[in-house]
Amino acid sequence: MPEPVTRDGAKGEARRIGGGAGIVLVLAYGTLALAATGRSILQVVEYFDRAPLAYVLSAVAAVVYIVATWALLTDRRRLAGATIVFEAVGVLTVGVLSYVATDLFPDKTVWSHFGSGYGYLPLVLPFVGLWWLRRTATS
Question: Least enclosed by CB within 10 Å: which of 1, 24, 109, 129?
Answer without folding.
Answer: 1
